[in-house]
Amino acid sequence: MKSKEKESLKNLSAQELKNELRQTREKKMKLQFKSRMGSLPNPLEIRQLRRRVAKLETFLHQRETAAA
User: Considering the entire predicted model, what is its pTM?
Assistant: First the structure.
């Protein structure tokens, strides 16, 4: 993940992070389904999305612990 993207994620609110996380998970599931049914043009995209989900969960957890 590029540093500019990281910075933009850090500036999101908790609700925006949740929305982004939900959308990213949906996209990842669709790609996983497509990969099982056939081939993908970019199979590394699943790995990138998995890592993006982890980053979003980390930022969301940081927000929740800071608020508590």
Answer: 0.87
